[in-house]
Amino acid sequence: MSSGWRAHAVGGITFLLLAAATGYAQAGSTGATSSAEAQATEGALHQLSAPGGQNLAAPTQGSFTGSLVEGKATDAVLDLSLDDAIARGLRQNLGLILQATAQQSAHGQQMEQLQALLPTVTGDASIEVEQIDLAAFGLKIPGLNPIVGPFQVVDFRAYLTQSLINVPALESYIAAKHNFAAAKLSADDAREMVVLTVGNAYLLCLADAARITAVNAELATGKLSLDQATASHEAGISPRLDVLRAQVDYQNEQQSLISTTNQLAKDKLALARAIGLPLDQAYRLTDSEPYAGLDNLDPAAAFAQALKNRKDLAAASEQVAAARAGQTAARADQLPTVQFSGDFGDMGQTANHSHGTYTATGSISAPILQIAKTRGEQDVAGAQVAQASDKLADQVQQVNAEIRDSILDIQSAAKLVEAAKSNVDLANEALSEAQQRFHSGVSDNLPVSQAQSSVEQANDQYIAALYQHNAAKLSLARALGVAQSNLKDYLGGK
Questions:
Q1: Domain ranges for the chain
Q2: Residue 433 neighbours by CB under 8 Å, 6+ apart
Q3: Which of 89, 138, 182, 428 could make an SS bond with 315 (beta carbons 3.0 to 4.6 A apart)?
């Protein structure tokens, strides 16, 4: 049995949201644009995106547009409301699932760092058979056979190691704890991103459906104009040119219906991808495209609300705390560490002929000369603290900019909706007047054709403005960090 203290010198050792920007832009004669239209390809729909700048374990930019498929397609047509779509997305969206695994990984890293502070116990059992030649060790005793054995040694033993003082390990654990807290907050923020992504995808489909309804109405009007021109030509009242002009307008509407129907099918596939529906599952949208004003928007008050609600800002703050703990760990790496180790077991020739033995050891380890290593670790840790702090400061201002952008878009889109709705009414009135004049033989059908184009353009602008207004309100809800909890309050107005 032995116990004692010994000291020796050894060398030391050595993680956001930009809201998805979406819009529905249609080519128009007025040339009016908004921030959402400026980000779209002319006459097309915006692509959804997720925030970048995340670590490798977290969701990538495109992951929020993907999902894990839930169930199999059925022959029945599924009714899908906005609430249903969001609920499915919160279960199956790939970005949220990846963030959950990143959280699990961060928890595992925290547990790994904790082990350095906890007792470590191991055990083993051994049976040895030995035969020793004493002469090989220079032992020659007259009258004594130099060959000893063979003999057997049985040993059952448990080993214990415990750090008593280890500041670097403690600070490393604290850093891992902050990283885990950041991962949990990022998982909460990922739910906001799912609501934004799914909500935008659903609104895109609603805009496509509204466009199809408008084109069908325009197609019916075009068919009426074609029938009128044909009847007038056959009666000898109007020339063949009127028939050809009306036929071109009618076929243009047919082409527009084909294109818009195809766009709706593609956007419904994108929505299905985001919420985990089988791509061959037929479904219909049960919600209509809402419009409600959102007034009395105060950017300063909204920014103060976002600072309390945004989980990504809280996650970035935790990452700053983790970097500071890492910096403390780097500084403490030059401090002594105190460790206790010991073992206890049963040893003898056989299990029945044995006796308990133990060893207890206390050790102090301290670095003596590792200047470059210590300075290097501190420089790296200091740079990480500065980087995390600078990213947090920039992210705060980014949130402020997102809120102000969304408020400007809401106010602009609301005015566009009012103007576009008035243009629709005026264009329909002009079309009715032109049709009456042509039917009375006062003029040819050129004014009818021009009026039909104005109606189509006015409908496009109204649908685009309505979508932009809803998308801007959804973006504001996300910028405030309340998209999941208060979505209907923003889309439905207050």
A1: 13-117+166-334+372-491, 120-165+335-369
A2: 451
A3: 182
- Dihedral of alpha carbons 302, 307, 308, 313, sign: positive
Supply 469's token pair. 């207004």
Q: Which CATH number among 2.20.200.10, 3.30.9.10, 3.30.300.20, 2.30.280.20 corresponds to the domain 120-165+335-369?
A: 2.20.200.10
Q: Is pLDDT larger for residue 41 or for residue 439?
A: 439
Query: What superfamily in CATH does domain 13-117+166-334+372-491 come from?
Result: Outer membrane efflux proteins (OEP) (1.20.1600.10)
Please choose, from the candidates 98, 100, 102, 94, the residue with its C-alpha nearest in 3D space to the C-alpha of residue 70: 94
Q: What are 64-91's pLDDT values in tens digits?
A: 999 999 889 899 999 999 999 999 999 9
Phi first, then psi: give them for residue 117, nearest 5 degrees.
-100, -10
pLDDT over threshold 50, residue 197 = yes
Q: Quick one: three-class SS letters along 446-464?
A: HHHHHHHHHHHHHHHHHHH
Contact assessment for residue 210 and residue 466, using Cβ atoms and an 8 Å cutoff: yes
User: Amino acid letter at 39?
Assistant: Q
**Cα pseudo-dihedral 382, 387, 389, 392, rounded to 10:** -160
What are the residues whose beta carbons fall under 8 Å from the beta carbon of 262, sequence distance 6 or more? none
Report the predicted TM-score, pTM, of the whole model to 2 decimal places. Answer: 0.78
pLDDT of residue 388: 94
CB under 8 Å to 413, separation ≥6 — which residues?
Answer: 34, 36, 465, 468, 469, 472
Q: Does the pLDDT at position 141 exceed 90?
A: no
**Through-space distance between the first and last CA atoms of the chain, rounded to whole angstroms:** 80
DSSP helix/strand/coil, 445: coil
Q: Average the pLDDT over 270-275 and give the result.
A: 95
Residues 218-236: what's their mean pLDDT?
Answer: 86
